[in-house]
Specification:
With about 200 residues, the protein is of the alpha/beta class. The chain contains 9 helices and 5 strands, in the order βαβααααββαααβα.
Length: about 200
């Protein structure tokens, strides 16, 4: 039987990736949308040539790969440039994700994506799990993890869906305001529940 797809999302610093890792340890097939996004701009892929043509060669590193930091700076400054980039990349990322999900053989598979709600990626899923965390904790964790300053993290949070928006899409919510062992226990509880579902519905 074809596995049903669980969308897993959460804002920066929410612990979404730690949750995905534990689901994976439990034998669930996980597709990471961020990885798909990195793959579509690898050297030799058509998207990279288009990006360099649009933004100029200075968007590339010496080895010909994408200078992500430079690209991030450019698109954060301009809504128009961000839209252009999204129009180019979102369909390619979607194809990549669908191809990866086709390889799943676990009873259900996970699409882990920070932009599940903001893009049409949620339409590929039958159920959505949101890893939720209070914004103060989110800021603190993301600053610590990425050695980033408060301003940078706040700018990233602004580009993501609001907490309310994400929670409105959620079928399940995992509040991750404690430690890692609590998070893992919650993942195991949800996993047992998900194994009882057909097509993502009770």
């Amino acid at each position: 039987m074809k596995p049903w797809i669980l969308g897993l999302t959460g804002g920066i610093g929410s612990g979404k990736s730690a949750a995905a890792r534990h689901f994976s340890d439990l034998g669930v097939y996980v597709v990471d949308a961020d990885q798909a996004a990195r793959w579509v701009v690898e050297p030799g892929r058509p998207a990279l040539a288009e990006i360099a043509g649009h933004f100029g060669r200075e968007i590339l590193l010496a080895d010909g790969s994408l200078d992500r930091a430079a690209l991030r700076r450019r698109v954060f400054l301009s809504e128009e440039e961000r839209r252009w980039l999204e129009r180019l990349l979102h369909p390619l990322i979607r194809q990549e994700i669908l191809a990866s999900l086709k390889q799943a053989s676990s009873p259900y598979a996970i699409l882990e994506s920070p932009l599940l709600v903001e893009t049409d990626q949620h339409t590929m899923t039958q159920r959505i799990l949101v890893v939720d965390v209070p914004e103060s904790l989110q800021l603190e964790r993301a600053m610590q993890r990425d050695q980033a300053d408060r301003k940078q993290v706040e700018a990233i949070i602004k580009t993501q869906a609001s907490r309310e928006e994400r929670l409105r899409h959620a079928d399940d919510v995992l509040v991750n305001d404690r430690d890692l062992s609590w998070l893992q226990a919650e993942v195991e509880r949800l996993h047992r529940f998900y194994l009882t579902l057909r097509g993502g519905q009770p």
